[in-house]
Amino acid sequence: MSTKELLSVRDTARALGVHENTIRNWQSRGVLRAVQLPGSGYRRFPAADVERLRAEMFEQLAPAIDGPVVNAGRKRNRSPRLRRRHRVATPSGSRRTRR
Asked: N or C: which end of the chain has fewer CB atoms below 10 A?
């Protein structure tokens, strides 16, 4: 197996759309098979296994019938702290308001 056929933890996580720690947990639980590099002990994952798992993940998703779901009526909940204007000093000594 060549190095090109092996993916790092980061590349595997990006390919599957999950966090790097999730990949490490899946490896320890046996969901993904890893190859330990001699000397360094870094994990590498076969690209074929990653693609197989990716296909299984997408297989479980419900098919989109009417297109993407958008919450158009949902209001954003902004913290009052984010809306507050901040006063900053300018080099001339005057004060201006910054949003």
From this structure: C
